[in-house]
Amino acid sequence: MSLYNLNRLRHFVEVVESGSFTAAAKKLGLGKAIVSHQVAKLEEELGAGLLVRTTRSVQMTEAGQRFYENAAEILAQAERAVQELQQEQEIPSGLLTVTAPEDYGQCVVARALMRLRVKYPKIRVNAVFTDEKLDQLKEKIDVSIRVGWLEDSSAIARKIGSFQQYTVASPQYVEAMGPITTPMDLQDKDWIYHCKLPAGILWQSAEGEEVQFVLQNPPITVWNTLTSHACALGHGGLCLLPSFQIREDLASGRLQRVLPGWHHKEGGIYALFPNSRFRPAKTKVFVEELIKAHKEVRDVF
Amino acid sequence: MSLYNLNRLRHFVEVVESGSFTAAAKKLGLGKAIVSHQVAKLEEELGAGLLVRTTRSVQMTEAGQRFYENAAEILAQAERAVQELQQEQEIPSGLLTVTAPEDYGQCVVARALMRLRVKYPKIRVNAVFTDEKLDQLKEKIDVSIRVGWLEDSSAIARKIGSFQQYTVASPQYVEAMGPITTPMDLQDKDWIYHCKLPAGILWQSAEGEEVQFVLQNPPITVWNTLTSHACALGHGGLCLLPSFQIREDLASGRLQRVLPGWHHKEGGIYALFPNSRFRPAKTKVFVEELIKAHKEVRDVF
DNA sequence: TTGATTGTCTCTATTTTTCATACAGTATGT
DNA sequence: ACATACTGTATGAAAAATAGAGACAATCAA
């Protein structure tokens, strides 16, 4: 097909509407030579005369008349298409699909999403809180939240924040254990073990001391942190849980930290995006909201 | 506005429909590098990601999905506009406005136009037979027929054919005149003078002899050849008339040539077109038809 | 692992677009 | 009739966009 340059169309339409090449050129901010040349080229492409020029005036041919209407319509439609797109770019809207691990999803992401809905009602939310790893493309996921430590991934990541891990237990269980002074005292206690995490537990004191031991035959094995949490609340024993998950339990006293002088490895929260050159507005505003929500639950104790 | 290249749109749409850059490039007959580059440029222009690429597959973003529909529509419309135009270019149609002098119009052009209508029913005809000179642009005249000798004009001319001028009179008048042997014998006869033509009459013999005289106080002055014709038929006197006008009269004997051994200056029939780079089909076929019609009336005697 | 396929990148050649200037024809006002 | 102002066009150089060939990294299937 011959027609491919919308600017030519624009020039032609402008000439028709202005009634003169010079006026059109002025309006378009171009030299009149260009407009003349472009319209001539358009005619050549189309193999038909559109305008009849004399040195003093411009008139449309019959073909030009008919083509003008089409041309104007095409331009209008093109403009509409672009505007529609850019409006979407500015006003966050559309379906936002977010995945996150179950625990972090429930504790933080859900709140961020609900606030987002209040701010931007045109965003529809699809929250997939699961510990499974989904196909970002197939499920059309806009943002994947990863908690912990990133493996390599082709996707682009943005750090949302960090979290601490705390060794906690219910007050009852702590009392039953009796006094504890060093991590090694905990080695043979009742650990609630999250099987997807490494069995080795690393302790770091404020002074830089390091102690590590590996859980041998933990009496309770669970498959996700929500279960760990439930077991700990049920006085099942010791449990390593992320700070964001136990914020309220620590505040209310339903759980308490064991050996608060010792810390575990800090983890990160990351947002992963599909590998696209541009990030839609809905994604941007969600990430901002998530960062805000995360700050509220960070490092409670 | 940013969007201006329809080829980009075409590439994008093709990628979406093929589901792959490589397939799209193949279909478009281009290198995949170009397609990739063009689509990237389109995204840049729009400030929005349209496609999410991985090394193995291409997926549309939400924005891309929506834009795709608009893009496809725009392309379809552009194609339609071009086709419509080019079809018009091939199948003669539309309003054909023709001007011609009254006499030639009635004698030749009308016939050509009527034949044209039979051949190409989609042509509508606007026949303006008048001796006035009209504004070609203002009246949207596609073809102006000029009879005689061209003055300068910015319009483009095409010669349709030529015609002779004959000095004629009715048989009665010729008989009344008595025997005539040389042009000078006619100088003081009753001339029917067409005031828009020069008063000087030039005679050329077959042997190359030239005689010229100027009409002094012609007894009958008329303003157009149709009147001349009528006066001649009414035995008013001698009259210089174009061949196409008196073809039938000569055949039927109602008029007859005077001094057929002497000739007058040959005239031409010209078609003038508006100064347009391209000539619509309707114009082309009309000119052909007119040439054919003219041949039939040319140089009867 | 290899081999095939994907999309992208780089470099170069070609085409297109733009600009500034000069030009020719025509209407207008004196 | 004349100059003036205005029209659209032609020309040639500079800038930009487009096209093509080959190499590259990433992925999937065997």
UniProtKB/TrEMBL annotation, chains A, B:
PANTHER family: HTH-TYPE TRANSCRIPTIONAL ACTIVATOR TTDR-RELATED, HTH-TYPE TRANSCRIPTIONAL REGULATOR. Belongs to the LysR transcriptional regulatory family. This is DNA-binding transcriptional regulator, LysR family. CDD domains: PBP2_CrgA_like (cd08422). Keywords: DNA-binding, Transcription, Transcription regulation. It comes from the Bacteria. Pfam families: HTH_1, LysR_substrate. InterPro entries: LysR-type_TF_proteobact-type (IPR058163), LysR_HTH_N (IPR000847), LysR_subst-bd (IPR005119), WH-like_DNA-bd_sf (IPR036388), WH_DNA-bd_sf (IPR036390). SUPFAM superfamilies: Periplasmic binding protein-like II, Winged helix' DNA-binding domain. Residues 4-61 form the HTH lysR-type domain. The keyword DNA-binding applies. GO terms for molecular function: DNA binding.
